[in-house]
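Re: export button greyed out
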Amino acid sequence: MTEIIIKNGFVFDPINKINGEKMDICIKNGKIVESVNEHKAKKIDATGLTVMPGGVDIHTHIAGGEVNTGRMVRPEDHIKDAVSKTALTRSGSGYSIPSTFVTGYRYSKMGYTTVMNPSMAPLEAKHTHEELNDIPLLDKASYPLIGDWWFVLEYLQKGDLESCARHVAWMMDTTKGYAIKIVNPGGLESWGFGKNVHTIDDQVPNFCITPREIMVGLAKVNTMLNLPHSIHLHTNNLGLPGNYLTTLDTMRALENVPNNGKPVAHITHLQFSSFGGDGWGSMKSAAPEISKYINNHNHMTFDMGQVIFTDTTTMTADGPFEYTLYQLSGHKWVNSDVETETSGGIIPFHYKKNNAVNTIQWSIALELALMIEDPWKIMMTTDHPNGGPFFAYPKIIAWLISNKARMATLKLCSKKGQKKSLLPTLNRELSLYELAIVTRAAQAKALGLKNKGHLGVGADADVAIYNVNPETTDIANKYKGVRRAFRSAAYTIKDGKIVVKDGEVVENVSGRTMWLDVHTTEKVKVDDDMRNRFKQYWTVEFDNYPVYDHYLKVPQAIAVKASI
Amino acid sequence: MTVIKSVTCPICGCLCDDIEVTVENNEVVKMKNGCAVCEGKFLGYKGEHRTKKPLIRKDGKLVPVTMKEAVHAAAEVLANANYPILYGWSSTSSEAQRVGVELAEEIGGVLDNTAVVCHGPSILGVQEVGIPTATLGQIRHRADLIIYWGCDPWSAHPRHLERYTNFTEGRFEKSEWTSYMTKLKAHAGNRKLASAMRIEDSKAKPKPQACYVGGSPPELSKGGRKLIVVDVRKSMTAEMADFFIQVEPNKDYEVLQALRALVKDKELDVDSVGGVPVEYLQDLADALVNCEFGVIFFGMGLTQTAGKFRNIEVAIQLVRDLNSKTKFMIMPMRGHYNVTGANVVSSWQSGYPYGVDFSLGYPRYNPGETTCMDVLLRDELDASLVIAADPGANFPKNAVQNMVKHPLIVIDPHMNATAMLGDIVFPAAFVGIEVDGTAYRMDSVPIPLHKVVDPPAGVLSDEEILKKILEEVKIIKAKNAKVA
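Workaround output, generated via the alternate export path:
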């Protein structure tokens, strides 16, 4: 293994409280080490450059059945962004749902090294893993959708948390998953017959349970199992005007879940859950109400779900929400319900500057990021590709660090939307240190990834170097240069290998797929009863259901000791 | 003697994975749970026509050669071709398909799968309007109205009814199999009777068939699951259906549009559409609107008749309309066991499901221009690789003539028609019997395929053969680049 020394860079490593200090970072055997033999080590001169841990994305739809159906139905999306084969890299297509190889290359070019695929129907988990194997240069993991899984609904309805927890542990192993994903709890099961739930206390048809009971139950299960991440939650009523009340109810419902000092839930793409008003005409930002609550409570984390003005593809397990979008747009509509587990849908969507609602959405995400005081609570995402493709991140970076950048964009937006935007009242501009928090450190911390998101000794040698000199650059003023720098990293180092140089891929490596190997004192009994229930619930045999080890090209099991 | 349970059947898009196979001395000797087609494949995979050595055509005759020779010859052809086509892929594993996409990219070829001659139009229809669909279990648990349109599952997907639709027991819907079986038996009895009568009275001619059969509304208002068949002839599935609508050939589009109008409470000022009296369409429209969860399964009767992808588009439009009144789904009855996988793999690697042209160094997709059929009929190819399909037997004559004009490489377990026309032939192991892998069911659910016996000595899997060819192609290209 080669040794590398990154010399003289300005290091931003918030987990270790390093704020722009000029220092050397040493790498050996794929890990950050105290020192290396300077004569032998490859030197990277980072004088005048910004050095950060590799980027971590907590929520990005990059692989699996839903994503791939999105690719399949949108040839018009690919044609404008064809990617050629090179001696080192595979060809493919880009834009809102890039092909697998292109996804890996584009993330890596921006200095990202770890991404989380947040939506995996357990029945189709093999598909997700087959695709993850074809996404190079990144470490990856997936969250199985289990909020509307019949086993969960039945055990929680009976109040049998321990059995529920054991089955969730089994599901992590069976799907090779990383966290509990809950989407529109109760709504997806209701969608099986074309219905939905509208408050967190609505009854789910046929199951005598409410969304509140599902969320609280699974949050407790998460604590019992000591999973590294909290429950990962997509709220009820997502994307509907006035839904911030549901979001507030949801956050309050989870206040009293025991948490061992860690967050109990992560509400994802918060923008889509922070709509005020009572119809599309009166729709407005509820960022003040939401951020006020968040600033006074510490039991949850969030990500933005920033909207980018472009043609993109929305895709979510929230089938009823996609149906609402279909009614609004009349665009091509994919619905994909999965037996016993979840639902799903896809609608192409063009966020337009001259549209008031889209402008307000764009504004809400930024308002949240600026009004929530603690950057460790709100991370940068677009909910790729729902708010926009991930390779638009440098644009968001510019908006976060520069009021000037925000105003330049707002100026081009719908007049009605401009009037409703709260951005002109917000002067906060994130520093590079805070930027490092919202793009990697906070994400790694929330995910419980001990070796990611920082550059302390023992961390994975995932490093990003950007051509930004914090000493000589006024980043808020010169945001265009910063945007350019974050679009193509000067270097991306993955597991101690230089994979990107000056924004071009220079070496091809496979990343790992992480999954949780949860140890409970008593395992799920695979007896005749379990097999019989299985046969009744699914159309696939029990033995053909699990994702066996060989489906993961480079597996990394993370052992977790449960407290049950 | 070992009994292997939960084996997946590598035949049709149903991918039944509950097959029990008994193996003795590396040979399948007994089967359980499979349909006749499944048993035929598992018990007959050691057919007498099976070759076990690669063959190369020399002086007009196919002669056995070593694997190394065959791989080198195939790689030479492909590496030096300008515009090769790589066709087939639907009866092999996604693992092999993955290598296939890379090979196509490496040689700048046209990658296409059998969807081009079956459900390609379905994909085009979906690309126009999307598709509201679900996994088959969702239908098993919830559907109370099942429509088969332009397909005959009883003959072509024999266990579809039994595993996923009317014959199954779901959480919210009960099985109806006894009533259908009784009906089918009664029909069989009536037929025998009619046949006996005909023999009795040799002058009697068979009566012309009515354009609709058994269509009384009471049958449609019965409780439980309902089965409706729409087809141009009374198929086996239609025999037991609760309601059968016989459409004139090539008139499906009109009938579907008429249904859309009726579902939207519009009146039709004609007496019949596509040979079907409007009152019967009205009965059907009422059934569609009044169900709790309906589904349309469609086959090649819709995709490959007049209108083609427009038929699919309008069928999906009908389903979209119905979702404002009830829950309604639609699904293509995919044929080959992993044709869905071929579309899936091609999409995740290139962005496009079939007919992908890599000749410019990046994937390009424009059916009508970039499918292998387009290239064949324009006679633009200069070599072809055919794997896990038999275009020699079922492509149009002109296409096959153009195919055999140029070097033809065939990878297949069978000595099929294409292999007999081939210049380089690789015998392959049977995927799902002699090698394992993954296949995608018609509803895109991935299911593992299992190896139950060893392949004959020296016979490799599709994946291994493709990898060898790909490796050799890269070596040859590197050499060529040096010389240049």
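The domain at 49-118+337-483 of chain B is CATH 3.40.50.740 (Rossmann fold). The button fix ships in the next patch.
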